Amino acid sequence: MTIIDHTTADVPSPHGSPEDSGPLLEVRDLHVEFHTRDGVARAVNGVNYSVSSGETLAVLGESGSGKSVTAQAIMGILDMPPGRIPQGEILYRGRDMLTMSNEERRLIRGQKIAMIFQDALSSLNPVLSVGYQLGEMFRVHQGLSKKEAKAKAIELMDRVRIPAAKDRVNDYPHQFSGGMRQRIMIAMALALEPDLIIADEPTTALDVTVQAQVMDLLAELQREYNMGLILITHDLGVVADVADKIAVMYAGRIVETAPVHELYKRPAHPYTRGLLDSIPRLDQKGQELYAIKGLPPNLTRIPAGCAFNPRCPSAQDICRTDIPALLSVTERDGTELPGRGSACHFWKETIHG
Amino acid sequence: MAEPKRNDDSMDATPNVTEVETADAATVAESVAAIEAPAQRGEPILQVRNLVKHFPLTQGILFKKQVGAVKAVDGVSFDLYQGETLGIVGESGCGKSTVAKLLMTLEQATAGEVFFKGQDITRLSGRALKAVRRNIQMVFQDPYTSLNPRMTVGDIIGEPFDIHPEVAPKGDRRRKVQELLDVVGLNPEYINRYPHQFSGGQRQRIGIARGLALNPEIIICDEPVSALDVSVQAQVINLMEKLQDEFNLSYIFIAHDLSIVRHISDRVGVMYLGKIAEIGTDTQIYDHPTHPYTQALLSAVPVPDPDAREGRDRIILSGDVPSPANPPSGCRFRTRCWKAQDKCATEVPLLAIPERFKGTDGHTAHESACHFAEERDVVHAA
Ligand SMILES: Nc1ncnc2c1ncn2[C@@H]1O[C@H](COP(=O)(O)OP(=O)(O)OP(=O)(O)O)[C@@H](O)[C@H]1O
Ligand SMILES: Nc1ncnc2c1ncn2[C@@H]1O[C@H](COP(=O)(O)OP(=O)(O)OP(=O)(O)O)[C@@H](O)[C@H]1O
Ligand code: SF4
Ligand code: SF4
Ligand SMILES: [Mg+2]
Ligand SMILES: [Mg+2]
């Protein structure tokens, strides 16, 4: 049994090119807390994950489990204060962004890592034309002239398949539909050809047909530029279509990691199993939906031991006292299952039981 | 509305081929006849007939001049039976919420009728309207913004009693509200708490309790679980089903998530650009869809289980939804339909059981507004 808490489950990626061997981004033992009137809210409690070039990591988990806060810490856009990072490392190509010089950090966050937010309408400036906002990336970061920047903006709009980009470059955000605005956000993130894109619920506000278009576009562009992608979502269906590996979060920790297909077949953590069982099916009509009982934990008073224990159907005494580490998961006979890990005292019973 | 009204294509004379943009009386009668419900369901509690809502588009600052109209809802008909759930699905902007608002009489219909137990509520006002409103309640989408943050949970749930004091006399309200909290599975002691002290799922329960306060017969749910994650969503859906059985409620359930809609609905209507494209039982729509738009919509649903996904038939639509201010002539779906023919540009397909499936007792025999309706299973793995 190996403890993989500090080395991070690393699933070999089908796209990973041999020359850049190490992961593109690695988060190690990250902690984030918020000082609030009700006490210290421990939003992130030792997160470990990594993503390589050309690879897609999906981060899944309950509302409030710390998915966005982790991403904000990577992007350096946490509210500090009240936020604080008491512990942890965020390694970009092996170098810790939390300790490097401001200058260096700014360069990486401005050009190498880009983020797509959930709500495209509120992240675009309503009084500036879409073309101006796209062009700004080139004017500020590459010192292009107004005219050159505009040409680049049109090219990008074409790239994300906005019809008649030339005619629409001067339009304002409200003149685009929800799906088109989300594509503009993708264009903006792609502008400087970053190494890594973090997409926080990029399709939650969209309906299924537009969702499919946006996800396909993202996947295609990722392949083309060999980018790493961190996809945050609570839609398990979207994940299954595009991700290579999944990390499941609960109460600020990673409770399970797995290559995408294996997670669905054989979850190794009771919370993941509960999530999968709660999904209604499209191809058949079931009886009552399974629902995980109880409420998410209060982050100022996370239960002792395993944070999931008050809601877990398999909880035993040890779960109320000892925090389970993220351990690698193996077959019954001890054969390794690459990339799989579970933070449950009873992972064996859960996956093999 | 300068659409070509008819195009007499004698070579291809299927009976139901012509329809005026906003269907005239004859076609309405025809489509009503087509909405035939199994006998055991009895009289519908709600009958919606050719409902239309156009929002005027104006220009000019001083002298507003109407330059067109957003045809948000453009001839929608369906029935709702006692104790059943009718799901409504469709792309963003197709008019789902506008239908909900028309049924709630929060918007004035441009044309059409809504019969509640035989009475046309679009023509009611004053006391009669108030009495009907009590019986049709709504649960809103967003549990985070739909509750007033400065009111206690007790005030929020009890607010409908201010408008309808006959349901709960002053002295009785607190007890009533606590009863309602209990019904939706919240601790009655929470009555003095504020919304921010609850989780998303708990807030949605508060919204449901409020919807139940006046003992309505119909509850219209507009995206009631879209903002919730799957585990919380399951709790809320189970609660809604339990309440339906207990109080024999009828639901209209509007949502983006087709799996959830299948789970909760007895029948499902698929909307596209202000019209119903296809309507039928959940089995008819999900397992035997005949309208290309329904097929595309279903095939785009991401399915989590990798085994169920292998071999699925995925249709990715190109292009964006046309503007409802200027919908395509003929079939509104034709600009994105891979099966479109000349006829689709000139003749509005009527919502009816396609001629070729009439009289067959298979699941394909349900209403579908397509000239070339044919079955295609896009949900099950090949
Ligand atoms: N500025 C802040 N001050 C105090 N608490 C905060 C702040 N930002 C986030 N939090 C808390 O941190 C926790 C984690 O939030 P986060 O946004 O990461 O959740 P999430 O996993 O992204 O959830 P969702 O799926 O709902 O987006 C939440 O409980 C949230 O209330
Ligand atoms: N008050 C209004 N004035 C003008 N146009 C409106 C108004 N309300 C809605 N619309 C338009 O009517 C159309 C239908 O809107 P509606 O809100 O009913 O869509 P929906 O199907 O509920 O979409 P969603 O899934 O995004 O909620 C849209 O094009 C919308 O822009
Ligand atoms: S450690 Fe215990 S409480 Fe936590 S998930 Fe495993 S069995 Fe459940
Ligand atoms: S009527 Fe024509 S355009 Fe419309 S859905 Fe049928 S085949 Fe497609
Ligand atoms: Mg989030
Ligand atoms: Mg709506």
TrEMBL record, chain A:
Single GO BP term: peptide transport
List residues of the ABC transporter domain.
Answer: 25-276
Keyword presence, Transport: yes
Q: Which domain of life is it from?
A: Bacteria
Question: Membrane topology type, per the record?
Answer: Peripheral membrane protein
Q: What is this protein called?
A: Peptide ABC transporter ATP-binding protein
CDD domains documented for this protein: ABC_NikE_OppD_transporters (cd03257)
According to its record, what are the GO cellular component terms? plasma membrane
Q: Which InterPro entries match?
A: AAA+_ATPase (IPR003593), ABC_Ni/Peptide_Import (IPR050388), ABC_transporter-like_ATP-bd (IPR003439), ABC_transporter-like_CS (IPR017871), Oligopep_ABC_C (IPR013563), P-loop_NTPase (IPR027417)
Family assignment from sequence similarity: Belongs to the ABC transporter superfamily.
Under Gene3D superfamilies, the record lists: P-loop containing nucleotide triphosphate hydrolases
Main localization, broad class: membrane
Q: Name one GO molecular function term.
A: ATP binding
Q: Where is this region: Disordered?
A: 1-23
Keyword annotations? ATP-binding, Cell membrane, Membrane, Nucleotide-binding, Transport
UniProtKB/TrEMBL annotation, chain B:
PROSITE patterns for the chain: ABC_TRANSPORTER_1, ABC_TRANSPORTER_2
The record's InterPro entries line, in alphabetical order, gives: AAA+_ATPase, ABC_transp_ATP-bind, ABC_transporter-like_ATP-bd, ABC_transporter-like_CS, Oligopep_ABC_C, P-loop_NTPase
- Alphabetically list the UniProt keywords: ATP-binding, Nucleotide-binding, Transport
Which Gene3D superfamilies does the record cross-reference, listed alphabetically? P-loop containing nucleotide triphosphate hydrolases (3.40.50.300)
Domain (ABC transporter): give its ranges: 46-298
BP-aspect Gene Ontology terms: peptide transport; transmembrane transport
Any one GO molecular-function label of the UniProt entry: ATP binding
Domain of life (superkingdom): Bacteria
Q: Per its UniProt record, what Pfam families does this chain match?
A: ABC_tran, oligo_HPY
Q: What is this protein called?
A: Peptide ABC transporter ATP-binding protein
Which organism encodes this protein? Streptomyces scopuliridis RB72
